[in-house]
Specification:
Elements (H helix, E strand, L loop, with lengths): L2 H8 L5 H8 L3 H13 L12 H4 L4 E9 L8 H8 L4 E6 L6 E7 L2 H12 L5 E9 L4 E2 L2 E2 L14
Antiparallel strand pairs: 1-3, 1-4, 2-3, 5-6
């Protein structure tokens, strides 16, 4: 992976001047490369990772295992793209193993997520079955520990 992309992937809040200093490039070169990556859709967006409880965000998330019938000429793609377009869907991935798609959804409450599954997702032609798992508490999100770094609670062992 390009060094600029790696740095942005680790911390998208870095300013072009900071990135330029880290990469030994000019700020204009960094800005131009970022603009090019955005135009080529290599960089698709920027997001902050929130500690939602502290931010007062009350969201219900669920992970849904979906089994689907692949379509002739389209395989899994058309159905997966159709599911991914729903506003409730945050992520949609083709998987290997016991199910075909892993879909992560968000709603304001359990009923909203359940309604999405029963009235929208499960009723799509080609969806064979779903298994919904509600996410109860995050401990790590996109590589970031939610509780922060902890001090080692045990004493170090010395020889």
């Amino acid at each position: 992976m390009d060094a600029l992309l790696k740095l942005l992937h680790e911390n998208a809040a870095l300013k072009p001047a900071q990135l330029a200093a880290m990469l030994n490039l000019s700020e204009a070169e960094v800005a131009a490369k970022i603009k090019e990556y955005e135009a080529d859709r290599v960089i698709l967006g920027y997001r902050a990772i929130l500690h939602e409880e502290r931010a007062g965000v009350d969201t219900v998330r669920a992970v849904i295992e979906v089994k689907i019938t692949p379509e002739r000429e389209g395989g899994f793609n058309r159905l997966a793209e159709r599911i991914a377009k729903y506003g409730e869907v945050r992520s949609c991935h083709l998987m290997s193993g016991g199910y075909d798609l892993l879909v992560i959804v968000e709603g304001r409450n359990l009923r909203e997520v359940a309604t999405f599954v029963s009235e929208k997702l499960a009723t799509i032609s080609g969806v064979l079955s779903t298994a919904t798992h509600f996410m109860l508490k995050p401990y790590k999100e996109q590589g970031v520990l939610m509780a922060g770094e902890r001090q080692e609670e045990r004493l170090a062992v010395t020889p």
